[in-house]
Amino acid sequence: MLEPFDVPPAQQQNFPVTTSAVGRNRVRPADATVVPSFVLRYLVVKPQGAQREESMKDWVKISESERTIKVGRGQRLVVDCEAIGSPSPRIQWLRDNRPITQLMEEDNVVRGFGLAKIVRTYVADCASPSHEGEYTCTAISGGETAISSSTQVIVDDDMRSECQPGAPKISVWAPIVMQTMGSDVRIPCRVHGIARVSWVSKDGQLVSNAPGSRFRVLESGDLEITKLKWVDMGKYSCYAENHIGKDTVSTFLYPMLSEN
Fold first, then answer.
1. Residue 23 per-residue DSSP state
2. Under 8 Å CB-to-CB from 187, ≥6 apart: which residues?
3. Phi and psi for 141 in degrees, rounded to 5?
4. What pLDDT band is residue 245 in, cutting at 50, 70 and 90?
5. Quick count: other Cβ atoms within 10 Å of Cβ 107?
6. How many CB atoms lie within 10 A of CB 81?
7. The Ig-like domain covers which part of the protein (predicted)?
8. Strand, helix or coil at 237?
9. Peptide bond between residue 87 and the one before it cis (omega within 30 degrees of 0)
10. 149, 107 contact by CB (below 8 A)
């Protein structure tokens, strides 16, 4: 498994990462755009010996979060699960060891080597005693599985409020996506509630699904980019909006060199 660490600013050079750099714990400097420091935390890894070379293996890790959540009856319950892995993790929520969400579908399209940090949020608009219990999430990356520690959810009658229709909530998204150049990449944006979903590219342009474009917003809300190029690197933002309110998230997309 990768062991991220922070790189001193003086050493934050131009880093277009190769698949072997991620798989073998190496990073190769080259002439390219400087990678933001928050991405470097996931790209630059501790050396394991100059002669050591490991094949790229499936791996996944869940970031632990708060252990107890108290919500008023009738209020919106929100519980987050965050996982990073290769290939892109698929996440499922369980309450008292019983699934309460479907496992995110597996993409059968061959997309080359990839790595992603995925956030999946369980949302219940009107919390009730039936929502109390121990919540855990499972993350699957290829043949590897990780299970979070439990989060206890308590629904408090003393904090009771009238249930109201809520603004949309983006429930599946990716802060970071890395994919080999030349392959297709899908950036998730799934929404809880009825909402209009739109994407804005790294250049600040609305993605319009124009004929012949490499950029397309799918019915699921995901953004698909075909034949990924180095110039596609940057921040992409997903917006979900209805008559009550809106939600937005951003993904940093990093194209990687392939050494195959």
1. H
2. 174, 177, 222, 223, 224, 225, 236, 238, 251, 253
3. -125, 105
4. very high
5. 14
6. 25
7. 47-154, 168-250
8. strand
9. yes
10. no
